[in-house]
Design brief:
Length: 374
Amino acid sequence: MALADSLKRHNPKAIFVLCLVEREVPKLASDFEHFDHVVLAKDAGWENFDSFMFRHSIVEASTAVKPRFMQYLMERFTESGKFVYLDPDVLVYGEFVELEALLDKHSIVVAPHLLRPGNVDMEISSLAHGSYNLGFLAVSRSANSEKFVGWWAERLFLFCYDDKVRGIFTDQKWIDLAPSFFDVHILKHHGYDFATWSLLGSDLREQDGAYVVNGDPLRFIHFSGLDSGTIEKAIGWWLEDGNKGVFCKLFEEYKSTLDRFGQKEYGRLPWSYNAYGSGAPIKKSVRVLYRDPALWSSIPSPFDSSDAQISEAAGGADSAKADGVVVGEDAALQARYPRAKSAPPTIVDRFARSILDIGFGASVAKSLKVLVGK
């Protein structure tokens, strides 16, 4: 609601289409004046949406639907030629004039996390999570963009998981390959997708009633990390007294805007795909078990099942298996790229897991201690 309100204020000709990954459209959404259309993800053209949805966490699910939803928009809005995806935790501060012009020349536009070197922590994070931030994506109608969205949709149907050890991070890591496969324009404009990863050394200031960041007019801020407290941490890590004031002001205004639209109440509503039809919660380990394609046909309606039934159909395991295959790994991916069950983890495997557990710096220090025998 905050996103739509801000978008319409600065880009009044835009058509705002909300995609909800829920079972029903709440009256709150259907009545909101700035939602031109509200579409349930399940109605965007899936053959067996419940089977697809069951094997994803809420974050995985919300990202996995993006390319199919983009295809749906291109099919439904035949008179429109330009389509922009924005994450819900975005607030718009200006007209998208640069993006409009770019989409006249380019059919795929992506924004990198980083526009300059120097923040080693974020460089390492980009290597793990993807070079481009998929809180934003823009396409114009063309054969190039249609092939791209089709390829992306096919990949996410099978592999949209938070599985960084295997090189996958939801919808985002796949886009590292897009510039190699398709004609893609990389948007190097500091005012688009400004976020926590942009803060180090940033120069965000107010000029003549508008905002400018590193010399570029501010178009939107992606307030990623709000719920986890990452934004507050990033402010402490990467901003100093000389460049802290404007961002902190806008961040406080954003939180007030969310309060105005009822985030404290609506943010506590349960996800409608988080439980079986019986009301029983779904174990994460059982969602992972259901990633085995053999179960999609044997249990085509998983929300009508139970943890016990799916676990039994998968071989009776909903925890670590005795043969060394750990639940939490992607069964479908493992089937395609198997590793011997008896093979011990490599040093790269151990280092990657250490980074995820305790961070890069601590992992390096730990490795150095092992090397010197301390």
